[in-house]
Amino acid sequence: MANFILIGLCIIAGILFRKSKTLPKDAHKGINAWIIYIALPAVSFKYLPHIVWSKDLLFPAFAPICIWMFGWLFITAYSRIRKLSSATTGGLKLVSSLSNTSFIGFPLILAYFSEQEIPIAIICDQITFTLLSTIGIIVAIRASQQQKLNGKLVLKKVLSFPPLVGCVLALIIPRLLNISFLDPLFEKLAGTVGPLALFSIGLQLKFGGWFSELKHISIALLYKLILAPLSILLIAILLGMTGTITKITIFEMAMPTLLTAGVVADQYNLNPKLANLVVGIGILLSFITTALWWVVLTHFGLF
Predict the structure, then answer these.
(1) Residue 91 lies in a domain
(2) Which pLDDT score is estimated for 234?
(3) Residue 66, exposed/middle/buried by CB under 10 A (0-12, 13-18, 19+)?
C-alpha cells in the first residue's frame, strides 16, 4: 500500500508544483538529468552484479525487441490506411513501441511484486534504452529529415547514453575489483529513481487539446497498453514458458510509453503535441491497465 501511496503522492505533487508555478518551467530537465546520469547507473551497480545469469533471462532481453518490431508494423499499417505524414508516423512509432520500464516500471514492480524482481526489469530497461538510442534515433532522423543518417551519429548516441554505459560498467567492474563496500551508496542513489521520476512525470503531464488527436492516441495506446503485452504473453504460452521471469517480463511490456521517446519526438519535431498526449494519457490509463494485467498474471493460473 505504501508504494501505491508514494506513486500517487509524487505524481500529484508534480502536477501541483507545475500548476502553482513554484518551480521553473524546465525544472523537470534537472531532475531527469539526475535520474539518467546518476540514479539509473546506480540501479545497474546495485542489482546487476548480483544477478545469477541463465538462459531464461534471454526472454526479458528478447521481449522489448518484439514489442518494437510489432509496433513498427502496426503503426506502419495504420499510417498507410490513414495517410499520415512521415513526422506523425515517426512520432507514433516512438511512443507506441517503447515501454517505460524504469520510471514507471520499477515503482509498479515494487508495488505489485517485490524488490527481488527488479533485476529482471533492469534487463528489459537496458534493451529498451538501447533500442531508443539506436533504431529509435534512426526512425526519428528519417521521419524528420533534419539530419543525414550516418553510423557515426548513431554510435555517438549509443556510447554517450549514461544508463547503457552504467549497465556495461556494472557488468565488468565487479568482475575485476571488489566494490561491495560501495553497495550502501548505490542503494541510496538507486532509491531516488522512483520518487524523482514520478515527480518529474507530474511536472510534465499536460492534456490540453487531446480530443482532436483522439483517434491517433487511441491507436497508440491500444497497442502499447493492451496488444503489446498480449503479444508477449502469447509468445510465452507458445514457448511453454512459466515462472517469475516470464511474469515480470510481460508486466514490464504493459508499461506506458517511455518518457524519453516523447522527448526525442519533440527534439525532431515529430508531431510533439500528439507524442506528449500519448505519453501523458498513457501514464494515467496504465494505472488501470497494469492492475488488470497483474490480475491476469497472478490469478489466472497462466504462470
Answers:
(1) yes
(2) 96
(3) middle
Cell of 234: 502469447
Predicted TM-score of the model (pTM): 0.82
CATH of the domain at 131: 1.20.1530
Supply the pLDDT for residue 166.
Answer: 87
Residues 6+ apart with CB under 8 A from 27: 17, 203
Residue 259 is assigned to a structural domain of this protein: yes
How far, in Å, CA of 126 to CA of 124, rounded? Answer: 6
**DSSP assignment, residue 156?**
H
SS3 225: helix
**Which residues does 291 contact at the CB level (< 8 Å), separation at least 6?**
none
- Count CB atoms within 10 A of the CB of residue 178: 8
What is the structure's pLDDT at 285?
A: 93
**Cα–Cα distance for residue pair 58/54, rounded to 1 Å:** 8
- Residue ranges in the chain modelled with pLDDT below 70: 1, 146-149, 154, 157-158, 301-303
Residues 217 and 199: their CA atoms lie apart, in Å, by 23
For residue range 62-91, list pLDDT tens digits in order.
Answer: 999 999 999 999 999 999 999 999 999 999
Per-residue pLDDT of 245-264, as tens digits, reads 999 999 999 999 987 788 78
In a domain, 199, yes or no: yes
Domain count, the chain: 1
Determine the Cα–Cα distance for residues 287 and 102; give it in Å rounded to an integer.
Answer: 15
Please give the residue range of the domain that contains residue 278. 2-12+26-203+210-293
Q: What is the pLDDT of residue 185?
A: 95
Question: Do 229 and 290 contact (CB within 8 A), yes or no?
Answer: no
In a domain, 219, yes or no: yes
Cα–Cα distance, 200 to 94 (Å, whole number): 20
C-alpha cell at 153: 551519429
**pLDDT of res. 244:** 92
